[in-house]
């Protein structure tokens, strides 16, 4: 009887492990209705004007508003009314910080260089890359990780399951090129802006190009190191 119970427990454990990756993904940002263009200057008006290459005078013009609204619409920032608020500036500021990293994403020394091939994921900068020792293999590229309450978990992981045509069993949405590294958390393609706030449901979203490249470079058993903290979580 004890042997039967043990066999049942093992079977249930295996079943749970196989089902777990099906659970977590990301829903695409809902379509936004056209918002009236605001005439009000936002608290980050000058910073936003500078980012967009507009005259930096801190005053909202019709052209300023159209430029800000186009940026908001492109990246799924709602409401997309052209107001230079903290969410809009937060996305732009993150883009500036990502650009400043250049081709040296591991300069902070946080991602291990003694693991051979490893996928690194910096939550603070929302950047990911693949390195082999100290050699940069691919990236860095922007990623969209877990929002507040659905944070992408930090630490050293391993890719343990891959499914090129995965579909989430919870959200019933496609997760192409899915590579799971922590329960239901995975690298996978997402068809929306990588800067779309507030973030995913825990996965590390990638563009189609980057998701395909990660699929070609990584294998089961490869290490993944996640560190930092996503802004707003």
From TrEMBL:
<dbReference type="GO" id="GO:0071972">
    <property type="term" value="F:peptidoglycan L,D-transpeptidase activity"/>
</dbReference>
<feature type="active site" description="Nucleophile">
    <location>
        <position position="203"/>
    </location>
</feature>
<feature type="signal peptide">
    <location>
        <begin position="1"/>
        <end position="33"/>
    </location>
</feature>
<comment type="pathway">
    <text>Cell wall biogenesis; peptidoglycan biosynthesis.</text>
</comment>
<keyword id="KW-0133">Cell shape</keyword>
<feature type="domain" description="L,D-TPase catalytic">
    <location>
        <begin position="116"/>
        <end position="227"/>
    </location>
</feature>
<dbReference type="GO" id="GO:0005576">
    <property type="term" value="C:extracellular region"/>
</dbReference>
<protein>
    <recommendedName>
        <fullName>L,D-TPase catalytic domain-containing protein</fullName>
    </recommendedName>
</protein>
<keyword id="KW-0573">Peptidoglycan synthesis</keyword>
<keyword id="KW-0961">Cell wall biogenesis/degradation</keyword>
<keyword id="KW-0732">Signal</keyword>
<dbReference type="Pfam" id="PF03734">
    <property type="entry name" value="YkuD"/>
</dbReference>
<dbReference type="GO" id="GO:0018104">
    <property type="term" value="P:peptidoglycan-protein cross-linking"/>
</dbReference>
<dbReference type="InterPro" id="IPR036365">
    <property type="entry name" value="PGBD-like_sf"/>
</dbReference>
<dbReference type="GO" id="GO:0071555">
    <property type="term" value="P:cell wall organization"/>
</dbReference>
<dbReference type="InterPro" id="IPR038063">
    <property type="entry name" value="Transpep_catalytic_dom"/>
</dbReference>
<dbReference type="GO" id="GO:0016740">
    <property type="term" value="F:transferase activity"/>
</dbReference>
<keyword id="KW-0808">Transferase</keyword>
<dbReference type="InterPro" id="IPR050979">
    <property type="entry name" value="LD-transpeptidase"/>
</dbReference>
<dbReference type="InterPro" id="IPR005490">
    <property type="entry name" value="LD_TPept_cat_dom"/>
</dbReference>
<dbReference type="GO" id="GO:0008360">
    <property type="term" value="P:regulation of cell shape"/>
</dbReference>
<feature type="active site" description="Proton donor/acceptor">
    <location>
        <position position="188"/>
    </location>
</feature>
């Amino acid at each position: 009887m004890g042997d039967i119970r043990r066999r049942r427990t093992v079977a249930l454990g295996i079943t749970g492990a196989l089902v777990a990756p099906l659970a977590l993904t990301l829903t695409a940002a809902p379509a936004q209705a056209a918002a009236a263009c605001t005439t009000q200057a936002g608290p980050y008006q000058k910073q936003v004007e500078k980012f967009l290459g507009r005259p930096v005078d801190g005053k909202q013009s019709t052209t300023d508003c159209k430029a800000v609204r186009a940026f908001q619409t492109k990246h799924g920032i709602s409401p997309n009314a052209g107001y230079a608020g903290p969410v809009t500036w937060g996305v732009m500021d993150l883009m500036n910080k990502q650009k400043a990293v250049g081709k040296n994403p591991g300069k902070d020394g946080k991602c291990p260089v003694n693991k051979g091939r490893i996928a690194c994921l910096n939550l603070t900068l929302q950047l990911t890359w693949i390195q082999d020792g100290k050699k940069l293999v691919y990236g860095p590229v922007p990623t969209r990780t877990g929002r507040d309450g659905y944070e992408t978990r930090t630490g050293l992981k391993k890719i343990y399951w891959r499914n090129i045509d995965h579909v989430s069993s919870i959200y019933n949405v496609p997760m192409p090129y899915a590579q799971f590294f922590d329960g239901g958390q995975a690298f996978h393609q997402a068809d929306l802006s990588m800067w779309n706030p507030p973030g995913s449901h825990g996965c590390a979203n990638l563009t189609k190009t980057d998701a395909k490249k990660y699929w070609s470079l990584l294998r089961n058993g490869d290490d993944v190191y996640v560190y930092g903290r996503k802004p707003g979580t």
